[in-house]
Amino acid sequence: MTPDEYVEAVLELVDRIPAGRVMSYGAVADALAERSGRASARLVGSIMARHGGAVGWHRVVNAAGALPPRLAAEARARWLAEGTPLRGDRVDMRTAGWWPGEGM
């Protein structure tokens, strides 16, 4: 898989995350690892920072269920609008976490 194909694969996967659910950067990388040969949460974060505006960027969070502080207020508003389970200012990863192949 070329770097451009990987970007497309990340964005396609993120676009499939249902409203009210999330994946961590690492989970996105893991879901694509076998097919892509890459398994870097940091690379997924870079892709989301550069290209994520066209997809549900707020549905990809760090392992603790948070986004960078500069995005937190807008993300929280989106999470609330979608009914995403929260624990304080973070997503409740145990109940909101999603994996490809789960029911939508």
From TrEMBL:
The keyword Iron-sulfur does not apply. Transmembrane segments: none annotated. GO terms for biological process: DNA repair; methylation. It comes from the Bacteria. One of its GO terms (molecular function) is methyltransferase activity. Residues 8-80 form the Methylated-DNA-[protein]-cysteine S-methyltransferase DNA binding domain. It holds the Pfam family DNA_binding_1. Keywords: DNA damage, Methyltransferase, Transferase. SUPFAM superfamilies: Methylated DNA-protein cysteine methyltransferase, C-terminal domain. The keyword Endoplasmic reticulum does not apply. InterPro entries: ATL_DNA_repair, MethylDNA_cys_MeTrfase_DNA-bd, MethylDNA_cys_MeTrfase_DNAb, WH-like_DNA-bd_sf. This is Cysteine methyltransferase. It comes from Micromonospora zingiberis.
